[in-house]
């Protein structure tokens, strides 16, 4: 199985990086453009400012972390299958009105037998926890 990962650091951003509605609107549009499905969305607000948002996707995840006082945000998109997160770099830069970007793009490969064993082990752990909850 092949996975693609984009790490995107945006600086000099003029968009409101601490506005949850604005950021979620941008991330929702990114999901639409990538044709991925968000199954859960989590938000954590920091004091006095800063925001982290994680979208758990059917295809993996998107995470967003901001430092508004430095006009900086970091976005991580990890995906499987035919989804290529590199296709939305321009959209994200324009949406967050970034003055500069640094991106790292990588391919990751998971060996099928290893993946099958991990899933099997996780299932066993899940059953152990279930037995203690009842």
Keywords:
134 residues; alpha+beta; S-adenosylmethionine decarboxylase; 6-stranded antiparallel sheet; 3 helices; 6 strands; 39% strand; disordered C terminus
Characterize the structure shown.
Keywords: Autocatalytic cleavage, Decarboxylase, Lyase, Polyamine biosynthesis, Pyruvate, Schiff base, Zymogen. InterPro entries: AdoMetDC_fam_prok (IPR003826), S-AdoMet_deCO2ase_core (IPR016067), S-AdoMet_deCOase_pro-enz (IPR017716). It comes from Candidatus Iainarchaeum sp. The protein is built from 3 helices and 6 strands; from the N terminus they run βαββββαβα. It is an alpha+beta fold. A hairpin with a 2-residue loop joins strand 3 and strand 4. It is globular and about 40 Å long. The model is unreliable at 119-134 (pLDDT under 50).
Itemize the secondary structure elements and their pairings.
Elements: E1 2-11, H1 20-34, E2 38-45, E3 51-57, E4 60-67, E5 72-80, H2 89-95, E6 100-109, H3 112-133
Antiparallel strand pairs: 1-5, 1-6, 2-3, 3-4, 4-5
EC number: 4.1.1.50
GO biological process, one term: spermidine biosynthetic process
InterPro entries: AdoMetDC_fam_prok, S-AdoMet_deCO2ase_core, S-AdoMet_deCOase_pro-enz
């Amino acid at each position: 199985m092949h996975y693609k990962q984009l790490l995107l650091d945006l600086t000099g951003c003029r968009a409101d990086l601490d506005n949850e509605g604005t950021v979620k609107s941008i991330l929702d549009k990114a999901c639409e453009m990538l044709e991925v499905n968000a199954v859960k969305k989590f938000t954590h607000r920091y004091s006095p400012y800063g925001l982290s948002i994680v979208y758990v996707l059917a295809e993996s995840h998107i995470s967003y972390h901001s430092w508004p006082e430095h006009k900086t945000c970091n976005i991580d998109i990890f995906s499987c299958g035919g989804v290529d997160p590199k296709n939305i770099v321009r959209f994200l830069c324009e949406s967050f009105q970034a003055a500069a970007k640094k991106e790292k793009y990588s391919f990751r490969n998971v060996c099928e037998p290893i993946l099958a064993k991990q899933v099997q082990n996780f299932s066993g752990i899940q059953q152990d926890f279930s037995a203690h909850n009842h």
